[in-house]
C-alpha cells in the first residue's frame, strides 16, 4: 500500500491534478487527495502548497517527489527483471492500452488470441495515454497501444494501423446529410476539441491552421467518449477517428461526414521497452495484432443507457 501511495503522489505531481491522477489510478479524486494528506501527516510536513492554483510543490515536497520517483522506478525495474526471468515459462504478458483503441475491438481480438494461444496469460488494462507510456517505461506493462507513438531512448515503436478521421456532428446539423465536405466548410463552427496537451489536438489544429480554417472551440475534453457525448446533445462538431464512432453512427445518435479535400489519419502504434526482450508470447501477440488490422468489433450496447440532455449529465471520467 505504501508503494502505491508513493506512485499516486508522483502521479498527482506529474499531472498537476488530483482528478487526473485519480483517473490514472482508477480511484476517486477525494481518495487521491486523502493519500497525499496521509503522507503529509506521516512526514509531519506540507508537500503541496494548495493556496496556489494550480498547486505547487513546497521545498520538502520537491525533495520527496524526487526521491519517490527513484523508488518507484527502481521497484518497477526490479519487477521487470523478475518478470523477464519468469515470462518465458509462465507465458504472461501485460498490455496497457488507451480506451479509444476500442474496447469491443480488443475484446474480439483477445478472444482470437486466446483461441490461438490457450496457454498464454494476457492482462489488458485501459489507461490514460500518458499513463500507458509511463507503464511501459516503468516495466508495469510489456506492451502499450497508443496513438501518435514516439520513440525514445527507452521506447521502441512498432507500427500498427492508421485510422481515417471524419467530421462527426449531430444528425440534425446542417452538414450531417452531406456525403463529404471541404475542410473550409467547418469555418465558424462550434468545435468540441481535445485538450491542448494531447497530440491529436495539435495535429487537428495544425491542419486547420495550414488550411486557414477558423473554428470556435466551445468545449475541450481529454477523451473521445466525452467528446461524443457532447456532440450527441448538439454542443458542436469535431474531427474523430472513424472507428470510434461506428456504434453511434449506426444507431443514429451521431452522423459522420468524410473530408473531401484533405487526408487526416490517426496512427496507432505498439510501444515496448527497447532494452527488454518481449519473449515468445509478446512476439506472438504483436504479430497477430499487426495481421488483424481488418478485424471489426461485434455489435455492442451503447455505453450510455439513458438520453443525455445537458452538459451536466456528460460523464467525465472516461479516457
Largest sheet: 8 strands, mixed
Alpha carbon gyration radius: 21 Å
| Percentage beta strand | 15-25%
Known CATH architecture of the domain at 164-265? 3-Layer(aba) Sandwich
Q: Helical percent range?
A: 40-55%
Low-confidence stretches: 294-306, 313-319
CATH fold category name of the domain at 164-265 = D-Maltodextrin-Binding Protein, domain 2
Number of strands: 12
Order of helices and strands: HHHEEHEHEHEEEEHEHEHEEH
What's the helix count? Answer: 10
Q: Structural class, from helix and strand content?
A: alpha/beta
Global morphology: globular
Q: What is the CATH top level name of the domain at 164-265?
A: Alpha Beta
What is the mean pLDDT? 85
Alpha-carbon distance between the two ends:
25 Å
Short note summarizing the structure:
The chain has 319 residues and is of the alpha/beta class. It has helices at residues 2-15, 18-24, 29-43, 59-90, 103-116, 129-137, 199-210, 224-232, 246-251, 279-291, and strands at 48-49, 56-57, 92-97, 121-126, 143-147, 155-169, 180-181, 190-194, 216-221, 238-241, 255-259, 265-273.
What do you see in this structure?
The protein has 319 residues and is an alpha/beta fold. Among the domains are: 1-87, Arc Repressor Mutant, subunit A; 164-265, D-Maltodextrin-Binding Protein, domain 2, CATH 3.40.190.290. 41% of the residues lie in helices and 21% in strands. It contains ten helices and twelve strands. Strands 3, 4, 5, 6, 7, 10, 11 and 12 form an eight-stranded mixed beta sheet that branches. A two-stranded antiparallel sheet has the order 1-2. A hairpin with a 6-residue loop joins strand 1 (48-49) and strand 2. Helix 1 (2-15) packs across helix 2 and helix 1 (2-15) packs across helix 3 (29-43). The longest helix is centred in the N-terminal third of the chain and has 32 residues, at 59-90. The radius of gyration is 21 Å and the shape is globular. The model is unreliable at 294-306 and 313-319 (pLDDT under 50).
Amino acid at each position: 500500500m505504501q508503494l502505491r501511495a508513493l506512485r499516486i503522489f508522483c502521479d498527482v505531481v506529474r499531472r498537476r491534478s488530483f482528478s487526473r491522477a485519480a483517473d490514472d489510478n482508477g480511484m476517486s479524486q477525494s481518495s487521491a487527495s486523502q493519500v497525499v494528506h496521509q503522507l503529509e501527516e506521516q512526514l509531519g510536513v506540507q508537500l503541496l502548497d494548495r493556496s496556489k492554483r494550480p498547486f505547487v510543490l513546497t521545498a520538502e515536497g520537491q525533495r520527496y517527489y524526487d526521491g519517490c520517483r527513484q523508488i518507484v522506478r527502481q521497484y518497477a525495474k526490479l519487477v521487470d527483471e523478475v518478470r523477464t526471468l519468469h515470462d518465458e515459462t509462465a507465458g504472461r504478458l501485460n498490455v496497457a492500452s488507451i480506451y479509444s483503441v476500442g474496447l469491443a475491438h480488443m475484446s474480439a481480438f483477445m478472444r482470437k488470441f486466446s483461441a490461438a494461444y490457450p496457454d498464454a496469460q494476457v492482462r489488458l488494462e485501459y489507461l490514460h495515454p500518458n499513463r500507458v507510456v509511463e507503464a511501459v517505461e516503468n516495466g508495469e506493462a510489456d506492451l502499450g497501444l497508443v496513438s501518435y507513438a514516439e520513440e525514445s531512448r527507452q521506447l521502441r515503436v512498432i507500427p500498427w494501423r492508421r485510422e481515417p478521421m471524419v467530421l462527426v456532428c449531430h444528425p440534425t446539423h446542417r452538414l450531417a446529410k452531406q456525403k463529404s465536405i471541404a475542410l473550409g466548410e467547418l469555418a465558424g463552427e462550434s468545435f468540441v476539441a481535445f485538450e491542448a496537451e494531447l497530440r491529436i489536438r495539435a495535429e487537428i489544429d495544425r491542419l486547420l491552421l495550414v488550411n486557414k480554417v477558423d473554428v470556435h472551440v466551445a468545449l475541450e475534453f481529454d477523451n473521445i467518449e466525452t467528446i461524443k457525448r457532447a456532440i450527441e446533445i448538439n454542443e458542436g462538431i469535431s474531427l474523430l477517428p472513424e472507428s470510434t464512432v461506428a456504434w453511434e453512427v449506426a444507431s443514429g445518435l451521431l452522423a459522420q461526414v468524410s473530408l473531401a479535400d484533405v487526408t487526416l489519419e490517426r496512427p496507432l502504434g505498439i510501444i515496448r521497452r527497447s532494452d527488454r526482450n518481449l519473449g515468445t508470447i509478446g512476439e506472438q501477440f504483436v504479430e497477430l495484432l499487426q495481421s488483424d488490422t481488418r478485424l471489426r468489433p461485434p455489435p455492442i450496447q451503447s455505453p450510455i443507457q439513458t438520453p443525455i440532455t445537458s452538459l451536466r449529465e456528460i460523464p467525465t471520467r472516461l479516457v
